[in-house]
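User: Working on a comparison across species. This one is MotA/TolQ/ExbB proton channel family protein from Rhizobium alvei. Can you predict its structure so I can line it up against the others?
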Amino acid sequence: MKPSVHGRTLSSPMSYFWTMIIFLILAGFTAAILFRQAHAAFIANPGLNGLILGVLAVGILLAFNQVLSLRPEVRWFNSYRAAGSTEKAGREPVMLAPMRALMASSQSGAISTTALRSILDSIAARLDDSRDTTRYLTGLLVFLGLLGTFWGLLGTIGSINTVIQGLDPGTGETADILNTLKESLSAPLQGMGTAFSTSLFGLSGSLILGFLDLQAGRAQNRFYTELENWLSSVTDVSSDFAPAVVENLAAGSAEEFKALSEHLARLSQEGGSNQRSTAAMASLAEGIQGLVRNMRTEQQMLRDWIEAQQEESKALRRTLDKLTDKIGGQ
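Assistant: Here's the predicted structure for MotA/TolQ/ExbB proton channel family protein from Rhizobium alvei:
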């Protein structure tokens, strides 16, 4: 009997998408109010500031793509829950492809704990990989802002040195000296503008992209948590116990057979045609036959016990499904 596929569904990530849209609208409204100041800061170093805005635009697109890429996965999962079959769920998923393959091959609709951990690890790795680029771009914006700061400060220091070297208090009047000083200070002030404008754009872009990445991470975490909760409800714990017991039994039997065969070969080499050796070999053969019979009996008892446990598990699951339907109907 397949587990119930109705009831719990995955939440849509669009709530985080609209939160990101609203945040960008507020950021754009703030930029529109401060357009004159922002334009003046941008002109101070248009090349580096343009690069910062370009990196910000790429990061924004990637952050939105992380959220929107969850939509087809959620849609496929909810369709599978409603239809109860992977063939009727529609378009094949990308991130949930391992889960679809296991569900399609499982006749009972239940998965083992090993398969559960494998699916969750695969999905977690894919979610982390999708966010690596966005995290890198957030740090890159800070780096570009600091790069512009040091660039502007280096230009400022060089310009101040040139101004000091050009001053000659012993010649000319005071008014001429002040006019020359005022004209010479334009270059250092331009360098300071370059330094502070790139820091402004870099840190602002990092703030915007960091918030968008945070929302994308929250959407992915909710998707992962809800999927983990559902997979835990359809996990068959007893399916991992049976193979382990059979494997241990097979390993123990193999060791016993190996010891018996070695003993038989040693007697054959030592005794040759001796009657005692022949009697010992016959006794060993009877012992091996008895061991085989006992092993078959134990394996049959183990199979009967496993089938009984599975029937009890199915009965308990049917009871829980009925209770869930009754609670949902109320």
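For your comparison, note: The chain has two domains: 14-236, 239-329.

User: Helpful, thanks.
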